[in-house]
Design a protein that fits this description.
By secondary structure, the protein is an alpha+beta fold. It has five helices and twelve strands. The longest helix is centred in the N-terminal third of the chain and has 16 residues.
Length: 293
Amino acid sequence: MEVLSLIDEIKKEYINNRMVFIPGDTVQDILLALGANPDDLLKLKNVSEHLLSDPTLPFRKTKTGRFCFDFENTKIERIEFQPFVLSVEEGFVRHDSGKNRNFRGIGDDLQLNTAFQALLKLNAYLIHEVAVAPRAKLNQGSNKSLCTAFNIRTVTTPTMLGEPTLEGVHSDGVDHTMTTFIGSNNMTSDSAKTFVHDIKQKNGLKHAEIDKSLVRQEAQHKLFLDTLLFADHEVKHNLTPVFAQDKTKESTRDMLIFLTRKPVDNGHVAFKYDSFIPHVEMPLTIDMIARTS
């Protein structure tokens, strides 16, 4: 399968550099080869119209879904709702650090979208057996990983600035972070630039405060399906705000974010919420990409 050779080249770059940016047209070709329906690609551009208010950030609309990457059985399965929590200990410094956040769950409009399912498959393939610096209190021997998929719309209005990373420089408490752009409206060309930092960069810094000598890569999601993957525990990151082109109107930026890590051990802040029980009301099981070796 020719697409596997392409994905393997991307994976090789990820292993060597601990991050990789994949242009949207390349991602689209991969998703189509992995079974995405062209109509579903179009639908993906508008799926964020159905998002709901974020539990703690007024400038954001969100939905999430939890998925088990079962590498032993080569399956991806939707698993039950649980509260989401990130702590200062994991590199996340914000007013809601350590607090349980209850996001609304993604619906069939996203879960059954074959392009979204292909993104899950691509993510699982790219991170499988890629060793990263081990996070404390994660079960490093597990053959499963938890992927929390976020559909996020960041909103800027004439009276409110949308900040994709209000927390400043941070990590997301996981092994791998993959971010995919699905659309924007009325956004300036210098908005939402991603800066990937050396691990020495101090957590919580606003963009104007960062040590620029510790910036390892700058990227910007501009085109549909532009995707960035990085080893979350080996680097840190932040983004600049979403600025409106017409400041009298609302500006939006829509993303899919995939946060993937090993299951947690006892003593981790999320231990009692780390269930891998299948989702009863909205079940989904899909096969991973067939491996050739």
